[in-house]
Amino acid sequence: MLLFSIKNAFRKKFISILAAIGVGFGLMLVFVIGAFTAGTSAQFQDSLNKTLGVVSVTEKLRGGSDSHLPLNLPQDLLNTPDVGDSILSYNVETQAPDYFTSEYWANLSTFGDRLLLKGLNSTIDGNWGGPTTKIIEGRNFDPNKNETIIDSRLVNIADFPVTVGSNLTINLDLSGNKTSLFTIVGIYEQEDIGAPSFVPRDYYIYTDLETAWNLLDIAGETSDIYTLISLRFNVKGHEDTDEFVEKINDYSDADGYAPVYVTAFSLASFLREIEDTFAIFNTFTSILSFIVVLSGGMAIIVTQLMSISSRMKEFAILKATGWKNRHIFKDVIYESLTLGILGAIIGLSIGATLIYILGGGLLPFGGASAIITWRGIIEVVAYALGLGIIGGLYPGIKASRVRPVVVLKGD
Amino acid sequence: MINIFITLKNVSKIYGEDRTTIKALDQIDLQIEEGKIITVMGPSGSGKSTLLNILGAMDKPTSGEVLVDDIEIGGLPERKLSNYRKTQIGFIFQNFYLLPNLNVIENVLTPLVPYGIKEKDREKAQEILEIVGLGDRANSKVSKLSGGESQRVAIARALMNDPKLILADEPTGNLDTETGKSIVETLIKLAEKGTTLIIVTHDPRVVALVAKHPLGDSIWIKDGRLSDQPTYDLDCWED
Q1: Do B93 and A411 touch (CB under 8 A)?
Q2: Most buried of A6, A98, A256, A272, CB within 10 angstroms?
Q3: Residues A405, B53: C-beta atoms closer than 8 Å
Q4: pLDDT > 90 in chain A, percent
C-alpha cells in the first residue's frame, strides 16, 4: 500500500513537488536555526564549564585597569580560613599600560591593535589560567632577568627585532625618557580565536610578574596598571563557585586583607544570566519554527485537498472494489507523509549545505558555530511526520467519507 | 435444480424528502438464478443504475429486502458491506475509472492493495489479463490504451477478487460498435464459468446478444418498476 500511496502522492507532480519544496524550506529553517542554536549553546556551555571553579580577584576600590594588588596577596588568600584549603593553584597577571610598548604601535596591522607587556607569576607552559600558548622557539623566561617571550604572530608583522636573542626596548613613560631593555628568549604560539581580521587584537609579550612589577616602580607610575589574581579550586557545580566568591568577599569586608580591599568575582553567574537569555531565545526560535512548520502543513493540506477533490471518483471506485474507509484514509495519510518526508529530505540537504557554508568558515567574516545534532535531525523528521499526519488528516477524512453512489451518479 | 442467487422483495428506493421525492425503484420483486446473464434495460432515469447500486451494496433500499446469496445486504453495517463488495462483487463502469499513474497490471491489482500484494496475486492478475486478451500489455501505461483495452483492464480488475456477481453499468457506453460487441462477448465468456452477470445498458444490441445465449435473460425497467420488455431483433448486432 505504501508504494501505491507514494506513487499517488505525485499525481499532480508540479504542485506536489512545490508543496514538498515549501515544506522543505520550512524544515530547513528549523534545521539551520536548530544547528546554530545548538552550536552557540554548546560553545556557551563550554565557556560556562571552563569558568567553573575559576574565581578572579581584583582591587575593590580601584578595580579594572587601575587595580594594583600587592604581591603578597596570593599568600594571604592561601591563608584565608575556608578558602586556602580549597585553592588548587593560582595565577597572577600584571598587565602594563599601553604606553610601555607605544614605540611599536605603528607597526601593528590593524588600527586599535595593542602590544602589551604582561607579567605572569611563573611559567606559561601548562599554565591553567593563562592564555593557550606553547613555546615554539627558544625557551621560557627566567624570573628577574628582564627576559621576555613574544607572540609568533608578531614575527610576520613587526619591523622591530623578533628573533630569539634580540633586544627589545620598552618605554616606561609617555615621553620615552625612562626605558627598560628586554631580551627575547622565546617565541610562543597563541591559539587563533578566529576573530575577523578587522577586529583589533592584543599582542602580548610576557615576562615574570616581579619584573613587570618592578618596571612600574622604576616608572614611578603605580596607578595605571591592571593586576588580577585568578584562583582555581575544587568544584562540583556553579553553587560552589558562588560560595567561594562569597567567602573571599566576606573575609575582605571583615578587613581580612587590609589595607587592600579585594573583590572576588566569577564569570559563572554572568554566564548563567546569559543562559536565561538563551532560554528566551530558544523559546522564540521554537515558536518561529512552529509557525514556519505550520505554513508547511498548510501547503500539504492545500495540495492534498486539491488532489483528493479531483480524485473523488477514483476513491469511489476503490470503495466499490472493497476498500474500506480506513484504507482510503490511510492512503491519503501515506501520501501526505510522503510529501512531508520529501520535504524533510530537501530541508536537511539544503540545511546541511547552508550550515557547511555558514559554519565552515566560507564566509568572509569566518565561521559561525553550528552543530548538526541527531536531536536536530530527529526534530526535523518528527516535524515532517507530524506535518504529514496533520496535513493529511482532513483530506483523508474527506476522502474516506466519499459515497460512491453520490460521486458516480450521472456517469 | 434452480438456485436462486438474488432475491428482491418489495424493494423501493426513494430519493429526497417531502414534496421533492423521486421514486427511483418502486416495490420491485425480482429473483435471479445463479450463473445467469441478465441485461437490465430501460430509459434514462428509469432506475437501472439504482438497482445496480443496491445489488452492489453501494446504496441501501428505502424499504424492502435484498438477498444476495442468502445474505440480507440491506441490513449490513458499512464494515461488512465493504467486505461484501470485496468478496462478492465485481464492478465495471462505463468510464473505466483506471488509475492513470499505474500500469495495466497495477490497476488490476488495486482491489488487493490494502491487503498486501503477493507474488501469486501478480500471477493471477497476469492470468486474468491473458483471459481478457491483454496478456502482453501488463506493463503498459493505461494512458496508452484504447477505449476497448481500458474496459478490458476494468473487467480484469473486477475479476481480481473472484466475484460471484459482476455488475456492469453501461460497459459499452463509451465504445464503438465492434469493440462494444467484443467486450460483451468477453463478459459472457467469463460468466459462463458460473459467475452471475448483470449488465445495465441502453443498447438493444447488448440485450439481443445476451438474449441469444442459453443463460441470457433481460429485465425492462420503466419508472422504477419492472415492465414487459419490448421486442428486439436478436440479430441486430449482425446488421
Answers
A1: yes
A2: A256
A3: yes
A4: 12
Pairwise CA distance, residues A358 & A368, whole Å: 6
> Residue A203: which of A216, A218, A193 has the closest Cα?
A193
More confident residue, B233 or A1: A1
User: What are the φ/ψ torsions at residue B202 (nearest 5 degrees)?
Assistant: -100, -15
**Amino acid letter, residue B205:** R
Residue with the bigger pLDDT between A331 and A274: it is A331
pLDDT in tens, A241-291: 888 889 999 999 988 887 788 888 887 777 777 777 878 888 888 888 788
Question: Mean per-residue pLDDT for A338-364?
Answer: 83
Kind and range of the H or E run holding A94: strand A87-95
Q: Indicate the pTM of the whole model.
A: 0.69
Omega cis (within 30) before B171: no
Query: For residue A358, what pLDDT is reported?
Result: 77
Nearest of A188, A151, A181, A146 to residue A167 by alpha carbon: A181
Q: Which helix (H) or strand (E) holds A154?
A: helix A152-157
Compute the distance between CA of residue B54 and CA of residue B61 in angstroms, rounded to an integer: 7
Non-local CB neighbours of A8 within 8 Å, separated by 6+ positions: A331, A335, B99, B101
List the single residue in A4, A320, A325 with the smallest CB-CB distance to B58: A320
First and final CA of chain A: distance in angstroms? 28
Angle subtended at Cα A310 by Cα A308 and Cα A313, rounded to the nearest 5 degrees: 90
Grid cell of A203 as nine digits: 599582542
Helix residue ranges, H only, B162-234: 177-191, 204-211
ipTM value of the model? 0.85
Note the helical H segments in A310-373.
Answer: 312-320, 325-359
Pairwise CA distance, residues B183 & B171, whole Å:
8
Q: Which residues of B touch A (CB under 8 A)?
A: 49, 53, 56, 58-59, 78-79, 82-83, 85-87, 89, 91, 93-95, 97, 99-102, 106, 110-111, 113-114, 116, 157-158, 160-161
Task: Find out whether B20 and B137 touch, Cβ atoms under 8 Å.
Answer: no
Identify which of A10, A318, A324 has the shortest CB distance to residue B110.
A318
With CB atoms and an 8 Å threshold, state whether A325 touches B78: yes
Distance CA B145, CA B165 (A): 26
Structure confidence by residue, pLDDT tens digits, B92-118: 988 888 988 889 999 999 999 999 899
| CA atoms within 13 Å, Cβ hemisphere of A278 | 18
The owner of cell 528549523 is: A30
